[in-house]
Amino acid sequence: MQLNPQLVDLPVYQPGRPLEEVARELGLPLDDLIKLASNENPLGPSPKAIKAMQQGASQTHLYPDGNAFYLRNRLAKKLEVEPNNLIFGNGSNEIIEFVAHALLGAETNIVVSQYCFAIYPIVAHLAGADCISVPARNHGHDLTAMLEAITPDTRIVFVANPNNPTGTLASKNEVMNLMENLPDQVLFVLDEAYLEFLDDPVNMLPFINTKPNLLLMRTFSKIYGLAGLRVGYGIGHPAFISVLEKVRQPFNLNAMAQAAALAALDDDIHLHQTRETNKAGLKYFESEFEKLGIEFVPSHANFILARVGDGQQTFLDLQKCGIITRPMGGYQLPEWIRITVGTAEQNERCLNALIDLR
Fold first, then answer.
1. Which domains does the chain have, with CATH numbers?
2. Is the pTM of this model over 0.85?
3. Beta-bridge partner residues of 278
4. Which of 91, 103, 131, 283 has the fewest beta carbons closer than 10 A?
5. SS3 sequence, 325-353?
6. Dist. CA 303–CA 166, nearest whole Å
7. Sequential DSSP letters for 111-152
8. What does the DSSP 8-state code read for residue 63?
9. HSE of 189 in the Cβ direction (CA atoms, 13 Å)?
């Protein structure tokens, strides 16, 4: 077979390791393991979402609603947008693939920041496009430099705000300056997967109908605790959303996922508890790291980046203690690990293990 040439050097995305896999490999009891690797919700899914899935289980022999009518309309009402402003994906990753299919090809490029989410360049290279990576500023986006890096062949600028894996946050003025000065032919993809953890997020929703080259991405995987169901969505101008619908596969959002997401939208208690748990956890890690002299990047998300010396070895040593974190060598940060904020008990266990390894 003659494979596409861009597959030769294409890296494979390495997700956080599953609990079951680590338990098998190290011979550890599954119940003794904690996973602080993939920015998942330590409180689990919304109880309302669980109930909705249980109620819908008997109907899984039927194909799902291909247009996600009820979820689409409920979410549109909550966001105060129109249903045709929304497109749903099998996680936000699929939304990234949609825009790549729509805009990228040979002799095109994307602009990203150093330490950007790994999927952006992977999807670009898969489409035959180049990737322009702009040096980070204090581990975060230098949006002015990214604007200057745009070429006539640039089709997409990706910005995650807050950023994964660094947790950094670009200011409203910086985001607005980029949007207002972006060439009309360049799509601005603002990845807002961690938006709900912010006290005062930049609200870009008012611009989606006046800026056809703006696309917001959000997810139910993080604060809503539905990572295992893969529900992401894009918010944009109806004309561009209609283009993305042409590349969306039918039934890409399964029935169980739709039911759970719809129910989770109304669970304000779970949302509040998650936000408060995360705030307390971030404060705990930052305070303890300062006492211990461990360098960290102040985070606006539900994880924290810590400089531990040899990130890969620390990751392996923590695994032996039953704690799964995320080494950052693949993000050009070999001395760092990323720790998802867990429950108070999980955070304390992780910190004590780090202390023991020093």
1. 5-44+268-357 (3.90.1150.10), 60-264 (3.40.640.10)
2. yes
3. none
4. 283
5. CEECHHHCCCCEEEEECCCHHHHHHHHHH
6. 8
7. EEETT--THHHHHHHHTT-EEEEEPPBTTB--HHHHHHT--T
8. P
9. 31
